[in-house]
Structures are given as structure tokens and as C-alpha cells.
Amino acid sequence: MPTDPGARRAEGAAVPALALRGVSKRYGATTALEGIDLEIAEGEIMGLLGHNGAGKTTLMSLVAGLLRPDTGKIEIHGVPTDRDPRRARRDLGLAPQELGVYPPLTVRQNLRFCAELAGLRGQRARVRAEEVAEPFGLTALLDRRVSGLSGGEQRRVHTAMALLHRPKLVLLDEPTAGVDVETRARLIAYVKELADDGTAVCYSTHYLPEVEALEASVAVLDHGRLIARGTLPELVRSHADSAVELTFHGGVPPLHLPWPVTHDEDGVLRVHVEQPQLATADVLAALGESARLLVNMRVVQPSLESAFLRLTGSGAPDRRPPASPAPSPVPSPAPSAPRTAAPAPGAPANTAPARGARAIGGPDEPPGEDDHGPLARDLEAEQHG
Amino acid sequence: MGDGSLGRIAALVRQDCRLLVRDPAPLIIRTVMPLLIMSFMQPLFRAALRADDVRDANGAEQSVPGMAVMFLFFLVNVVGFAMFREHGWNTWDRLRVSPARPFELVTGRLVVPLVVALVQLTVFFGAGGTLFGLRVRGSYLALAVVGVPLAACVVMVGMALVALCRSIAQLSVIANLLALLFAGLGGALTPQSVLPDWVRPLAPGVPSYWAMRGFSTVILDGGGMGAVLLPAGVLCAFTAGFTVLTLVFFRTGHRKLSWS
């Protein structure tokens, strides 16, 4: 099910499952989030992208109530979290980035505990635990201790524990970190099922193919700011780089091309064109005599990866026509300042992540909260003094 | 409490029970070890009590309540571990996001240690009677009137330390020192009559003094309910004090280090 927040908003009436308005959070002198305006509709899957430290985990922690925003409002299904936090978060499920399970207990006991905390008792708790175990492939493992499971199996238990109470808003913070292909596919299928049933899902990941597989809308955070928001095709269309890459014998000759170009460190010339597969003939023609020195030509298609890299300033051309207006419901700022000799967007060279994995960065650091009791502060002062 | 609060507390208690059943060894050791030490200490206490003109004393009158009180305070660690392991397993944030309120999370984590403390006291006094010849001259109910607030006090000391300490290492060292300090000052390690003069004025400042005073009143003096109301009341006051400390300093958002 393609999730399209724009289309849903055009329909008008529905209250968003999650709305953030002007939300900011600082840790001392560090700005973790600044002025975030964001909505997720019911039944929408939103892929939350960003480099390490971009603010993804902080955003989820704020929504879940683990942190308090310095400014701004958060509403869950129209209920402000500052006025009625319990009611607002009654239907919220969070699977944090770090595994949170009870290792000495069995899978069944872990799941039952969450069901019991959610108010289910006896037979109902038992049945619900088994219901949730099934789509995660945990049925055969129900009576195994969690400490004896593989990392991927533990991750499945961890995620399943967030879903016992049938939440209507689910926050999954890098749920596939360190899991195998089968587990990833299983989780993605289940998340899509949840969305089909009307659950809103905020899904943070560094694996961009997951966002494509989820047919999710996308929000991109960069240094605590929301720099893009829209559907996947919209973001790719508006922000992804497309180019023809040229490699010449003896280095790049002097050329005067009618398109913006970038040079990478390996002597590859990137010619930025709109539809590279159609523009190759024009590019060749424009090379003139220099075409005889050409040893390699490659078409770089626009992708979420290149859009992400360009949006976050990791791969922008040195000259480029103004980008088309952002498709986002939030205003997308202009692309970051161009960098010369930046890694080529979408390129398979050593400056870009390996194809297939296409992971951007790694696991985020959890938010640092260092608010301890007075004794703790005294002891710390002694240790450091 | 009418919106499922009791159910959530019950869920937390059941979870603690499951965890306890998975690894009962520490609890068994904490129960058996005092019985061994009681047997070592009994001759010493017999001599000390007879020197205090308790002519028919067999030593159990001091060794059983003394070791019971001292080892009960080592249970402070159990309360600490129950809370800190949630941080170590990263389940604390899961609990915070759950429907459980902060007071439910704390209450749920107090019940099992409280029950454990009461069971330990029962085992100590029961074994004292059967193994070491402890004779209780007063009312067993009066023993319970002292024992219950003592157990509550121990549990709340643990929760106050959870609120105040950042790491389990801090909590562990402070809990162990407190247990020994309380035992020494309170007359659990030696009869109060043999404590140095400068220590005696300090003794009423620790809960173990009032526990020992209450137990001794029942065991040696044959006291009944009325005779232990003062020590039981003071133990309740200590419990209330540690509860206030907990309420003032405990924050669900505090990061705790399970190991450091």
C-alpha cells in the first residue's frame, strides 16, 4: 500500500496519528532537534532517515515521552502530550534502538509481561502473546529463553513486545539493525500489514531499500532539522541526482558542456542531466573530438540514496540548476551548500556505500540524559575532582 | 487505582517472581548464610548475655535476632538490583512507555523484596527455635509487629538508594556499608551493653537499634504488643523518612548504570 500523506491531507478531515509542531530539543549546547513540524497520517508508514546524530532517536524519544521537548507541541491522535500524556500515549508502541528484553525469561514470558502491563489477563494475555509471536516467526521459540536466541531472534522479540497492546502509532527505531535478510523481509511484511489496518508507523532506518520496500513516505533529518518530507517518488524526482559519468584516457580534457558537471577524485566527470538514459547521445555529441579519449560511460539513475546524499549535503554537484520546489508538506530548505570534489551521488566508487547494502551511517547514539540525583553528582564530582 | 493500576502492579510483581524463580541461588545463600553465622556466634553471645545477668541465656536470644537484622539489611542490594537490571537490560524505557505510572513501577518493584524480607525473618526465627533453642518469652505477634515495619524499612532504604545512586556499584558499596554500620551501632553484632560509651548515644539514630530493642523486649523480657509499640513506631517513622527521600529524589528519567 503506497502511503501518501499529501493525498490523505487533501482529503481533509482526518486527525493525524502524530503531529509535531515547532518541536525543539537541546542537550546543553548541542541542538538535537530544531523547529520540527511533522505529521503522520493513520495508516501511513513514514521512513525516518538521517545520518548518525541527525535526531531520529531524539524525535522518537520525545514522541514516546522519554524526553520532554524544550519548545513545541506533540499531539497523538489529536491529544496533546503535554496536557494528557497518559491518554495521548495509550495507543503508542515503541521499539527502541537498543534491545530491551528480559534475557533470563522465555519469549512467552517476555510477551506475556507486556500483554499483562497493557491490561490483558490470563487466557487473553496468553492468546495475544501467541498472536503476536506468529508473524514474527517466534511461535516455535515461545518456550526458549531469550538469552539463548540469536541476535536477530532477540530483535524480533524486542519488536513484538512493542505491539502486544495493538498500538495505533508505532515507533520503530532501526528495527532491522543486525538482523538477517529473512527477518528483515518478515518485519517489513508485518509493518505493511499494520499500516493496512490503519496503524501509523514511524520507521527509522539506515537501510534505504527498506523504505522502498515499505512504500513509505519519507522524512529526512539533518543536524536536527527536517529538511525534506514527501512521498518516495516525490523526493527522488525533486532531489535525486541523475547523471552520465564519463571516464577519459589521460584525465578529463578541457570541455565546455551545456550541463552542470562535477569531477571526482578518480578523474571521473559527472554530467548532471535530467533523464540520463535519453541524454547519452547528446552528451557524446557535445564531447566533440574529446569523445575519442572516452574509455568508459555510465548512466546514473535517480534513487532515494542519491536524493538522501544530496539533501544531506553528502553529494551535491558544484553547479546545478535550481532544484524544483520541494513536494513536502513541510517547507524543504534548499539543498545544502555545494561541495567541490564531493562523492558522486549514487556512484559505486569508494566514496559511496556499497550497492546492495546501501546503508547510510550506523546505529545512532541514544539520547544522552545526564540528570542524576545529588548523591550521584557528588560522587561524580569526587571521581573527576 | 481504579483504572487497572492494581493489575499493572500485579503484572510487575509476577515478572519479579518469574525472574526470582529463574535464579533463586542468591536468595537461598542469603538465607542459609545467617543460619551458619548464628551457630558460630551463639557461644559468644551466650557469654555476653550471662555477663549481663541473663543467667539462663543460651546465646540464641542475641544471635538469632542480631543476625536476622544484619542480614535483612543486605536485602537492600536486592531492591537495587531489581531496579538497576531494568536499565542494564534496556527494559526501563519500555516500562516508562508502558501504561504503568511511575508509582506503579516503584510499588511493583517493592512487593517481592518485601515478601522476601518477611519470609527470611520467619525462616530465621523459625530456625532459631528449632536449631538453636531460641525461647521467645513474649508474644510471637509482638515479634511480627516489629518485623513487618523492619522489613518495610529495609525495602525503602533500598529504594532511597536507588533514587540517590547512579550506578549499581555505588548502591552496592553503600548498602553493604550501611548494613554493617547499622548492625554495629544497633546492637546486632554485639549486645548493646558492651558497645563503647561514645557509640551508645548514636545507636537510636539507626533503625536496627529499634529492631533489636523490640526483638529483645519480646524474647528476653517477655514483652507483648504494648511493649513493642515504641520500637515499631520508630521503625515506621524511619520507613516514612526513606519513602520521602525516594519521593524527593526518584525520577523515572534518571539514567542508571547497571555496571560501572
Description of the molecule:
The complex is a heterodimer of chains A (385) and B (260). Chain A has 385 residues and is an alpha/beta fold. Among the domains of chain A are: 5-91 and 167-237, 3-Layer(aba) Sandwich (Rossmann fold), CATH 3.40.50; 242-301, no CATH class. Chain A is 30% helix and 21% strand. Chain A is built from twelve helices and 14 strands. In chain A, the strands form three sheets. Chain A has a six-stranded mixed beta sheet with strand order 6-7-8-3-9-10, with helices on both faces. In chain A, strand 9 and strand 10 (225-231) form a beta hairpin. The model of chain A is unreliable at 1-10 and 316-385 (pLDDT under 50). With 260 residues, chain B is an all-alpha fold. Chain B has one domain. In chain B, helix 2 runs antiparallel to helix 3 (60-73), helix 7 (140-164) runs antiparallel to helix 8 and helix 9 packs antiparallel against helix 10. Chains A and B meet through strand 6, helix 4 and helix 12 of A and helix 1 and helix 5 of B.
